[in-house]
Amino acid sequence: MEGNTVKRLSRLRRHRAAGPMLLVFALLTIGTTFQVAGAVTTSPSTVADRSAAIAEGKQLFLKGCSSCHGLNAEGGAIAPSLIGVGAASVDFQVGTGRMPMADMSQQAMRKDPVYTPAEVNALANYVASLAPGPEVPSEESLNYERDGSVAEGGELFRTNCAMCHNFAAQGGALTQGKYAPTLMGVEPKHIYEALITGPQSMPVFSDKTLTPEEKLSIIKWIKAAEAEPQLGGVALGRVGPVTEGLLVWTLGIGLLIGVAVWLAMKAR
Amino acid sequence: MTARERIAGNVAGYVDDRTGAAKWMKKNLTKVFPDHWSFLLGEICLYSFIILLASGTFLTFWFDPSMKEVIYDGEYAPLKGLEMSAAYASTLDISFEVRGGLLMRQIHHWAALIFMVGIVVHLLRVYFTGAFRKPREFNWIIGVGLLTLGIVEGFLGYSLPDDLLSGTGIRIAEAIIQALPVVGSYLAFFAFGGAFPGEAFIPRIYTVHILLLPGIFLALITVHLMLVWYQKHTQFPGPGRTEKNVVGYPLMPVYMAKAGGFFFIVFGVTAFLGAVASINPIWLYGPYTPGQISAGSQPDWYMGWLDGLVRMSPPIETHAFGHTISWNILIPGLILPGIMFTLLALYPFIESWATGDKREHHLLDRPRNAPNRTALGAMALTFTLVSLLNGGNDIIATTFHLTINQMMWFSRIGVLVLPPIAFIITKRLCLALQRADRDLVLHGRETGRLVRLPHGEFVEVHEPISAEKAWTLTSHEQIAPLELPEFDGAGVRRAGGIKNKIRNRISRATAVAVPKATESERKELEGHH
Known about the structure:
The structure holds two protein chains of two kinds. Chain A is mainly alpha-helical.
């Protein structure tokens, strides 16, 4: 009886699907293990957690950031001081992959983040421990669906943001190779942090300039713009008449001249 | 005679008895037109104009050209509850609530862009083939007028919906009006009925956009076509084609079918674009408020080169007697375009002055056989193209990871340096092509067949070209340069000596050519082979 089971199992072992199945199983196991083991509470609640995070953040800072920003975040010839920039600034710059910079170009580019969320949190805690500054907004304070208004957000966006980020938040050019990036696909948290910290060429929008509710309205409008279907056909990048002109000078007149040539060749 | 023929005959007879149309129709329906694809380019303009009239009429049923403040309460949620002008709100309604409204708006706008593209390519064809020469100078001027009015008409249409982009455009137009010394601010006040933006402008430009300018267009287009009819169409040179005949096919039925079919194809392409590609999405721009602006605010392409000129102009201003003259707006916005359009309109007269050629021309030039004209055209095109590129400098900069400053300096230098280079290169190319024509006539076509001769030499076999082709390549005339003498017979310096000297020089430059192959040269070479 038992021998039969073993035999059956060993037959299964040689089954064609056994290899791929095993691989899937192994990947699942490893993935789950990492997911569970890697899940760190992102906001240290206790004082002990916080000081641990600060200590870890300091280590990370010394390794990855201090060569430009100085051993005590005091800044240097090529990088500003980080004392007093606050956790929000670090969370934005490192969380969107802008820091560490890929190269010394005009502007730090958004890219895949180098650090894990836990490491970003540790770095933020360390920089925030140097001097007080804007804090990372809590999950609760970012409920833009509840607290924001799309129409008001659009009006505020066009008044405060569109002159650099374009009417549909697609981004635009600034002087000397600097640019306002597209806001498509940016996390609400990062938009909020950019507003309160004013990264790179962007001005700071304090709570006196734009109240937290107004900021949430702007975020809600950006998210609505992101989700907007392509009304009226292909959106052509939502950058205005330049792409429209390009299309009419290529496809439009191209088709018409093609037909004209064909008509002239056509038998009478 | 069948019953049907009898009825048709009776109807035709009835109409002819009362209008006398038969004689006129018989003459004109058999009128002959030459066949070439480039002769259809002007038709693109005519047909898109008809599409513009039709789709524009549809839009007027719902558009409300008023600056009355309304609170938007329509379908488009992101603008709900905002204050805006009735003009903008009704454009939103056309886009979202009127059945087929968005499609019609998009067809109207695409047709406008195609109309302007059509005018430009048609103008290029007429220019580069020399079709503007006597007796067609007036028609050329009408064409330049249509181009200019088209730019204005298009701009007014772009301004009507009162969205953020159109308001920005009007603001720049106002700035250009104000840049006029002395009268500028008064003119701006007259145009806007007070301070910018005011309540008067949208209703005013609406009247101009849908009544005044279309009326002028209709009149000018009619005269343009009547002149083509009366003066007959030009034709490319070829065997049997002279300055005194037109070789082609009759209007009825060949061109009726071709032109009629082409209308539907132009309509089809426009409708296709209107159906699949978004154009001027005014709901994204938001309502116009003078305090707002968007990055990458651009005009439509036909104004893009003007915008590009303004964008590249250095900040020069003069302050005198308590007045400011903004050269940075005045030069690129008014003076340069004024000079360019004037030169364009007067070009037929300038060329005939330079060459001394006052004869009628119904046979077209191949562009290579008029190197100076072709090179001048390339020069003007290059200037406009650099300006146009700079009009989109911000979009180009972000797309290709350039800086806006690089774009600006490229344009500032390029707009001065590249046109002369284009002139030289084009002229050289034309002469090289003339030389190639000459070789073709004298030595025939290279067959690519290599033959080894008994003594070991390899030669490529050349095949003589047909007599028709040889005729086409050699039928053009090569005008000798003017030789206006500096002194008269008695050795006295003639009046206007400097003018004549200049004219001689221009004429010499115009007459530069590779001597075309002559019959005797051809005969002589045939003896050799």
